[in-house]
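Quick board copy: two proteins, each given as sequence then tokens.
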Amino acid sequence: MAHRRAVALTAAAVLAAEAAGAGWLHWVLGLMVDRQEMSLAGLEPRLMAVSTWTGGVLVGAYLLLCAALLLRAGLADRPPARLARALLVAAAVVHGVLGALGVGLVGWAAFAAMMLVLGLLVLTLVAYGPRGRTEEAREPGAPGSPEGPEGLGGAPAGPPGPPLTPTAP
């Protein structure tokens, strides 16, 4: 399936660009806070600036990690491993929440951008499926495949065998 590779590589490029944008935004916000020299609830301006820069580095690093995982999946045309899938699902959830918040705070353009990234992440995760369970990995006629003797449900077509009873040791 060549389309899933293209979606994964596109999602990786978009996340890498988003990481650069988030890092730049946090850098600018940190500079603004640092140059204002105003205290907020007794916090030092320098501490707020360093916290903003640290947050930008962490957000950028997370997005770059997700981009690297998508790049690896796209280049190898293999589904991401379990931990990688969990990180990508978390990124999709964050983009969904930020999109919902962004529509009220920033506007519909921010919502559309977050939904685009969310769509790319979800499409990649769905296209690759869980590891070892892609349609291409199943042989025709193998148990669980749509062409197999069990059909779509995965249950045997014939009568069930004898019931299993546990034995006491």
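And the next:
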Amino acid sequence: MSETTTHGRVNIALTGRAEIARDEISARYPFREKQQLVRLGLAYALRLGLEPVRGGDFGRAGDGQNMNVGSFDPSGELFGLVRAFHPECDDPAEVAETLMSLGLVKLAEDIQNSEVTRIADILYANDGTD
């Protein structure tokens, strides 16, 4: 673990609400590992430019899936990406923890509202240039 990546943080975790969202997404789009879906939630949050803010309805990280920082991002590339999007952050693992929960909840909502109907939809902007 690099000191620039996690500041000694050992675990990151989903909120209970995000874990429910992850399971809803998994029912529709099965992934081999749940951690892959959590990474997808982080990527979706970054793609949408969600702010890593834990509002009143955020919940408590730790009520959901708990992951070792080293196994979540063994190469440090995800935390490097978080730092690139949020250079002001002191702890990219904490920002990732927030964004992965926010991203999973938003993705589940967007699937439910048919704004996302296939995984490829999250890769491309809906700008009519399919």
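Board note added afterward: The helical segments are 3-6, 16-28, 34-48, 69-72, 77-85, 92-112.
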